[in-house]
Amino acid sequence: MTNSNLTKVVLVDFNCLLQLGNSAEYHTGIDAERITFNKLLNLLSLLGLKREDIIILACSGENSWRKEFYPDYSYTTFKIPIRYSTMITDATPFHIICLDNLENYDIISYATKYYEDREKIIVTTDDRFFLLEEVPNVKIVSPKTKRYRTHKNPQLMLLSLINKKLKESKVYGDMVATMYRNLTTVYNLLILPEKVEWKINLWLNTLNNDKEFNTLNCTYKLLRNKIIEIYGKKDMIKEKTTIQKRLVFK
């Protein structure tokens, strides 16, 4: 359940948006960075935001701590050009977080607990984030369908994923229990290692909600007005899609 009267924190899975942008560039020939930025602004304008709301773009760093627990763990990272991240930082009120050895999962997961007195809106198509619905005042919206999404049983989803990876690991005997614990550490977004939370907490403690920005720094002149226009509108995303079928993880 969420309280719509709370101020909001929008947690954008920027890995997801960058992937959508790259796919669109392949099919249209339009610059992926422009597509991603435009898609982000369009979606934010539908969330009923106010200027005091916080918008965080979460990206994966170069490495992942999860490989220490599960060497076969695969993760996706997108190299964001410095000029692009600088443009977003200077031209918008958005905060980009990209920390080495951490993933988008870590940043978004910890932020849902850090901002306990706010409504948290996660922007993603990644089904692993469904588990965070167990945190109070969390909603998930798809940048593809522009609908809120929910899962009927996130814990069962987690268990299915862990059992799938356990079977693929082909361990036997005494190693089964150890591997199960490691996989739970890797895939349970509700519980992160202390050192991971500590690193993100340090960054969030320095985040300035009254961040200065100048839309004239936006490279895309036709999108400059849209940066301001994300505020002061009604929440236009009302429908909720409930996922009931078993999800297929790669």
Total DSSP E strands: 7
Helix content: 25-40%
Lateral arrangement of strands in the main beta sheet? 3-2-1-4-5-6-7
Q: Whole-number average pLDDT?
A: 91
Q: Please state the structural category.
A: alpha/beta
**Could you say which overall geometry the principal axes of the C-alpha atoms support?**
globular
CATH fold description: Rossmann fold
As for the number of domains, it is: 1
CATH architecture field: 3-Layer(aba) Sandwich
Instruction: List the uncertain runs.
Output: 246-250
Number of helices: 8
Instruction: Give helix and strand order, one letter per element, not per position.
Output: EHHEHEHEEEHHHHE
Q: Briefly, what CATH class?
A: Alpha Beta
Radius of gyration: 18 Å
Give a nutshell description of this structure.
With about 250 residues, this protein is of the alpha/beta class. The chain has helices at about 15-30, 30-45, 80-90, 105-115, 155-170, 175-185, 195-205, 225-230; strands at about 10-15, 55-60, 95-100, 120-125, 140, 150, 240-245.
Give your account of this protein's structure.
The chain has 250 residues and is of the alpha/beta class. The protein has a single domain (8-231), classed as Rossmann fold. It has helices at residues 14-28, 32-44, 82-91, 104-114, 154-169, 175-187, 194-205, 224-228; strands spanning 8-13, 54-60, 95-99, 119-123, 138-141, 148-151, 240-243. It has a 7-stranded mixed β-sheet with strand order 3-2-1-4-5-6-7. The protein is globular. The two termini are 30 Å apart.
